[in-house]
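ok so I'm stuck.
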Amino acid sequence: MEDRITMAHGSGGRSSAELMREVFGRYFRNPILDRLEDAALLELSGRVAYSTDSFVVTPPEFPGGNIGKLAVCGTVNDLLVMGAEPRYLSTAFILEEGLELSLLERVVRSLAEEAAAAGVTVVTGDTKVVEGRGGLMINTSGIGLVPPGREVGVDRCRPGDRILLSGNLGDHHACILSARMEIENGVVSDCACLGELTRALWQGGVHVRAMRDVTRGGLGTVLNELSAGAGAGVCLWERALPVSAAVRGFCGLLGLDPLYMGNEGKLAAVVPAEEGEKALALMRATEQGKDAEIIGAFTDKHENVVMETLPGGLRVVDMLYGEGLPRIC
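replied:
not stuck anymore, here's the structure
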């Protein structure tokens, strides 16, 4: 095969077949996909969760992961926070002419490895080649099954409920921005699937009201979405917000606010007040949740999201306004 993607790889002919066989077929082999039908036939029963997302991150490789790993984590996490057990993924690759084949193979390998680790099977996909500068974009869709009796939804949140954050804010955002600016600071993306965390909560018997993964828009935006959906205010505690020293220093250098910086391996969970400490202990017992904190509570004293600041005042925390740069997924 050629060393770089050409328009011929998108023609549907011999070059396309070679690409499918030598790259995608090598890493995505499974009985469903190997049939090479026009659609995958899946065995499903019960409530189904379905999500789709597209990934355009630049650079496509970064400390802690790449766009392939990110594509799996982003979609799998969307299913997990709805209480689902992820089962199947589709993948669609948009490849720009000139893309290095070695980079594509690293991305596909990473995607396959992360999918296997998350317990999901890539069952169908598509590839298109377009003119460009050697980049790539990925769309993934995911299907998961919600076990009977597992109810999760923002409308279930009540005043007094505790809000937990599974770890440090801003890691992925700071990593991508550092890579873009060619700043060497040791910040590593937190890109990860959150199955270990969600399983710990469910198996521990916690009555989770709602969950969200903290991605674009950051925690500030996520909390505003939860507040609006629940019809109740949120009081956030600045003293409890976990931020690593490296990210805090990076934010101070560039004037960034960790509340609006995205992650790709953190979740916010809402639980009844009496289960807050239990949920925290379960989270901290996992590798993904070792830095978890109870960061606030739902309240009927406010109509929106406010934060108790370190000096003792109140700060209104609004949704992200404008574009949060850089694009992190």
